Amino acid sequence: MNDQPLHDEADQPLFLTPDNAALIKEQNILQQSDSTIEAGVAEAEAKTPGAPPAIEPASAVASGTEMVGRQAANTVEPPGTPKRHPSVARSAGIVSMAVMASRVLGLVREMVFAYFFGASKSFANDAYVIAFRIPNLLRDLFAEGALSSAFVTVFSDYLVTKDEKEAFRLSNLVATLLIVLLGTLVVLGIIFAPQVVMAIAGGLQDNREKFELTVRLTRIMMPFILVVALAAQAMGILNARDRFGVPALASMFFNVGSIIGGLATAALLTDPTFSHPINAIVEKPIEGIIGMAYGVLIGGLLQYAVQWPSLLKYLNR
Fold first, then answer.
1. Helices (H), 162-223
2. Lowest-confidence range among 54-63, 112-121, 239-248, 292-301?
3. pLDDT tens readout for residues 164-173
């Protein structure tokens, strides 16, 4: 049995001797011990769900907390989203109140005309209505019609696609065009006022005095179209920059200026001493209605001027 050959790791034949037998036995014991240890480690790893987290330094924890705080500030409060709702609601409320106030003042304006220049008292009110129809028609075309809507759309597009410098360059070009075009139209309207009145109200030729008064009122109120067109352009600029309160109040100031300025001018023309201005306006309706025509210009200038502080504040930014 001692002569049975064995093979070592180098595949060299060995003969079983007492020393070799002890050595082989010791190697087998070590191999079994290593296998037991490896099996225990594998079983422990299989039972453990995961390795315990490593303990981070205090500086790393602090920096991580700061980063989480920054991310929370950026995700919990998106820029501008929660704060726009109160602003939009406030702007809508201001615009609604301004429109309502403008309508109420427009009713007051009609009541003033009915009191001082009723149809049963004289033909002054009829002449005023016909004369105001001409600049009011041009206002619907140039100031509050297609031209105004087109300007606001193009100006807003310039602000988005280009920059503010190009947008205000466009605004200056449009203002220059309005001044030249409407200024020329105003001059022509003043010169050819008799022909214009005859074209829209040919029946006035039978009443010479009424026709002449209508022509005079037309010439007085013709510059109104230029002023109100510039006011509409300023309104469009402010609306494009999300400023709605002041432009909405501008129409209200037109009625205020036309009522107060018109009555003050009418009182000055009928009673320069202001001793009995109301009675003087009633007794001299022709002079009084001329004062109300100047009140239209005062109201248009006030409508334009009330927007200038907000417009200049934005332009100087």
1. 164-191, 193-200, 208-221
2. 54-63
3. 888 888 888 9
Name residue 71's amino acid.
Q
- The H or E element spanning position 6 is strand 5-7
How distant, in Å, are the alpha carbons of 138, 195, 199 from that of 185? Answer: 10, 14, 16
Q: Which residues contact 13 (CB under 8 A, 6 or more apart)?
A: 5, 6, 7
Cα separation of 226 and 176, whole Å?
11
Nearest Cα neighbor of 241 from 144, 315, 175 is 315
In 3D space, the residue among 219, 213, 248, 217 whose CA is nearest the CA of residue 234 turns out to be 248
Q: What angle do helix axes 124-138 and 285-305 make, rounded to 10 degrees?
A: 30
**What pTM value is reported for the model?**
0.69
Under 8 Å between Cβ of 215 and 197: yes
CA distance 143 to 112: 26
- In eight-state DSSP terms, residue 260 is I
